[in-house]
């Protein structure tokens, strides 16, 4: 089946054999991951959609694909309009669409290993109200027709040294054990791959761009743990690192092991664990406690070792990015470069550091109209030449053993228009407002999100994505629970108060459909801040990312004195930090780019 149309037809035929009237296909895996291994890319295989968030619903006579505002343009470019309805979320949920389109008596299938219990309960309730039924399947029908589906990775695990992790695994497990005792629980099931990697101080290469291994973990109230992972992935070095307190078991045995908690109280995070885990524990006589995984907050609040590592990674990554920015500034106006060639050159600069483990995500290398697609992903079919008169946007990052980076810069190819400068400067004003924010303990990212948007709102503009997300320590580039976003936008909803030690992105943007996109992204560290004469302890941000912000796109007349002071001070810091790491010509170019702005 070489075409997506043929794959859709094959799935419908399989649904008929399975006595199903429809099926829900999410973009996730059995660990509720954002980025998934090739074996779990069911949504992309079926529809052609390459975004990092979405869901498809296939009925006998119609089908729909659900995406949020980041992918409004992208989904229309990649998914056939004659076979799929485009549905925006959160405006319309999968459950509500199904209730409006499924016939009474319809049996709508879902894979219990790919959905949370909350989603299952709500969708079943909505369907029941219209006389339809949500049906869990034992075998995923997409897998039945995906005949050349890749196998899960068999790559070995590696040890994350305590010097970089900042804390040993035994100490982390002891904290979880204390939490279990306080919660009155006997065990904690950890299905999230980055939480397992953080808890056990191990890393893997099973998921592209995220250094994790396909596994499950169970932590017991005595501080011991079980790691369910494929045989052969744990060598002697990793086994010695894990020690006798961590029992290694076959990942294939995990489902059956869930039935072994009879009489036990088992803590499971309902936002991270799939419905099948709850179902099997309860079927085996265990009591499930829907509690938040205690590793989430501990992982988000970076320790001194992790912060030091990120500073080193930011310095190294900033030098590589600066070399690229000089290269693209010279090469793009001359012609001959494309989105793919630019992304490849930036990756090469990062690899020349000798420390790059992987990219932290596929670079969003976007010129002209593709820049208006916030999560655009270039491939051979979409690759555009970079031409004069365009804005070139590059959102990229690296995975280093000491830290994970994520940074966005925009480069004008030739002379930018007055409108481009206006929009860029408004985005910069919002970026500065977040970077300089001071706020009390207990403040959430939702409360400060509007600071990034106000300069755009004042011109009748906005952007349809969150302003910031958490970032891991040589882990996931998108890490919860902290974020900066308003309700209704990706990453919105109930939010975690910001705490000292958290690392988040600061990335407001502006997108003019069909023409260009702008985003300015740095990573920030939440830190304690004393205010002279203040009456309460406060928090603030330190900007960690070090790379010049394009001065030719800034209209200094739109900046206040304080904003001008900030950008000049930031550029002075960038130049002083990166100059010793750059060859002479690159260093001279950096000094020119970081010179003070004048009105």
From TrEMBL:
Domain named Peptidase M24: residues: 310-528
Signal peptide: none
Protein name: Aminopeptidase P family protein
InterPro entries: Creatin/AminoP/Spt16_N, Creatinase/aminopeptidase-like, Creatinase_N, Pept_M24, Pept_M24B, Peptidase_M24_C, X-Pro_aminopeptidase_P
Source organism, top-level taxon: Bacteria
Keywords per UniProt: Aminopeptidase, Hydrolase, Metal-binding, Protease
SUPFAM superfamilies, per database record: Creatinase/aminopeptidase, Creatinase/prolidase N-terminal domain
Record-stated family: Belongs to the peptidase M24B family.
All residue ranges annotated as the Peptidase M24 C-terminal domain in the record: 537-597
PANTHER family the record matches: XAA-PRO AMINOPEPTIDASE 1
GO MF annotation terms: aminopeptidase activity
Domain Creatinase N-terminal intervals: 7-138
Organism annotation: Sphingomonas corticis
């Amino acid at each position: 089946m070489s075409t997506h149309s043929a794959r859709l037809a094959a799935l419908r035929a399989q649904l008929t054999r399975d006595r199903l009237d429809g099926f829900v296909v999410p973009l996730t895996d059995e660990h509720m991951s954002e980025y998934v291994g090739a074996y779990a890319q069911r949504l992309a295989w079926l529809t052609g959609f390459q975004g990092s968030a979405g869901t498809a619903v296939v009925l006998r006579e119609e089908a729909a694909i659900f995406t949020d505002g980041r992918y409004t343009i992208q989904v229309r470019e990649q998914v056939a309009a004659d076979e799929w309805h485009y549905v925006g979320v959160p405006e319309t949920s999968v459950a509500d669409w199904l209730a409006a389109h499924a016939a009474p008596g319809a049996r709508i299938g879902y894979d219990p290993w790919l959905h949370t219990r909350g989603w299952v309960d709500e969708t079943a309730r909505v369907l029941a109200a219209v006389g339809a039924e949500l049906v869990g399947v034992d075998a995923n029908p997409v897998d039945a027709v995906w005949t050349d589906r890749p196998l899960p990775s068999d790559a070995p695990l590696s040890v994350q040294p305590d010097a970089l992790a900042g804390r040993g695994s035994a100490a982390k497990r002891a904290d979880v054990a204390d939490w279990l005792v306080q919660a009155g629980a006997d065990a904690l099931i950890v299905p999230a791959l980055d939480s397992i990697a953080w808890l056990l101080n191990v890393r893997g290469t099973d998921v592209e761009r995220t250094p994790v291994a396909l596994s499950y973990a169970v932590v017991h109230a005595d501080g011991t743990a079980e790691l369910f992972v494929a045989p052969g992935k744990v060598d002697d070095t990793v086994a010695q690192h894990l020690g006798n307190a961590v029992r290694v078991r076959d990942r294939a045995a995990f489902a059956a092991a869930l039935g072994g908690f009879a009489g036990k109280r088992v803590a499971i995070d309902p936002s991270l664990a799939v419905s099948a885990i709850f179902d099997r524990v309860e079927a085996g006589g265990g009591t499930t406690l829907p509690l938040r995984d205690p590793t989430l907050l501990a992982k988000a609040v970076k320790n001194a070792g992790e912060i030091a590592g990120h500073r080193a990674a930011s310095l190294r990554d900033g030098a590589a990015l600066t070399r690229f920015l000089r290269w693209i500034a010279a090469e793009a106006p001359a012609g001959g470069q494309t989105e793919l060639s630019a992304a490849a050159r930036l990756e090469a600069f990062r690899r020349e550091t000798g420390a790059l483990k992987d990219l932290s995500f596929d670079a969003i290398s976007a010129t002209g109209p593709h820049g208006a697609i916030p999560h655009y992903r270039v491939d051979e079919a979409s690759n555009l030449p970079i031409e004069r008169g365009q804005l070139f946007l590059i959102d990229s990052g690296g995975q280093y053993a000491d830290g994970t980076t994520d940074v966005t810069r925009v480069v004008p190819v030739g002379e930018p228009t007055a409108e481009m400068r206006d929009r860029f400067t408004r985005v910069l004003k919002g970026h500065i407002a977040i970077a300089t924010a001071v706020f009390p303990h207990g403040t959430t990212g939702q409360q400060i999100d509007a600071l990034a948007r106000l300069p755009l709102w004042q011109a009748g503009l906005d952007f349809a994505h969150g302003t910031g997300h958490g970032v891991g320590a040589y882990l996931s580039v998108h890490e919860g629970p902290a974020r900066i976003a308003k309700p209704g936008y990706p990453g919105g909803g109930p939010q975690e108060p910001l705490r000292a030690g958290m690392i988040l992105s600061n990335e407001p943007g502006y997108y003019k459909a069909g023409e260009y996109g702008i985003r300015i992204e740095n990573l920030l560290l939440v830190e304690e801040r004393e205010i002279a004469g203040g009456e309460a302890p406060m928090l603030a941000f330190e900007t960690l990312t070090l790379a010049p912000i394009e001065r030719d796109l800034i209209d200094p007349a739109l900046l206040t004195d304080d904003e001008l002071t900030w950008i000049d001070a930031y550029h002075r810091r960038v130049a002083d930090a990166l100059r010793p790491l750059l060859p002479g010509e690159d260093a001279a170019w950096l000094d020119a780019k970081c010179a003070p702005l004048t009105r």
